User: Fold NUDIX domain-containing protein from Xiashengella succiniciproducens.
Amino acid sequence: MDRTEPNIVIRYCPRCGSPHFLPQKDHSFKCGSCEFHFFTNSAAAVAALIINEKKELLLTVRGIEPDKGMLDLPGGFVERNESAEEALIREVREELGLEIEDYRYFVSYPNEYVFSGFKVYTTDLAFICTVRDFQGMKAQDDISSFVFIKKEDVDYSKISGKSIRRMVQDFFNS
Assistant:
C-alpha cells in the first residue's frame, strides 16, 4: 500500500475536523458531517527546454528532495493566479537568473510528485525556450548546479520524474 496516496494521508475534514471525510470514486473526498466536498485535482507545473549554441540541452541538478541530486529541467509549480507562461518565466529567473525571450508550448505529461509524505498529482507542461544570453547564469533557489548535455550523452536513469524523462526524450527525438 502506498502511504503517500491522498486517501491514506487525508483523514479529517478541513472544514469541520470530522473523521467522516471519506474518499469518493471520482478522486474526491466528501464529509459525512458537514457535506464539504474536496477534489484532489492535478496541480500544474512547467518545465523549460533551453538549448545553447552547441545544441546542448540545459538540465539542472535538484538541490532538494524529492530526488535530490538527480537531473531535472528548470521549472516548477504554477502558483495561484499565475498563468503557465508567467510561472515559466518566474521559475527560470528564480532557478538560474536567466531571462526568457521567447517560448512555445511543446508537450505535457501527467506526473506524481511526493512532497512531505503526500502524493501530489501534476500536469507538467513543457515549453521550448530561448533566453537572452547565458551571462550571469548561476544555480539558485532549489537547484544545486546545472549542466548542458548532448543527445548522445543523456543518461535517462539519472533524470528525475517520468514526465521529465519523456519530455527530454521527445525533445531530442523531434
Summary: DSSP finds three helices and ten strands in the chain. The radius of gyration is 18 Å. The beta strands are 21-23, 28-31, 37-39, 43-50, 57-62, 71-72, 75-77, 100-115, 118-131, 143-149.
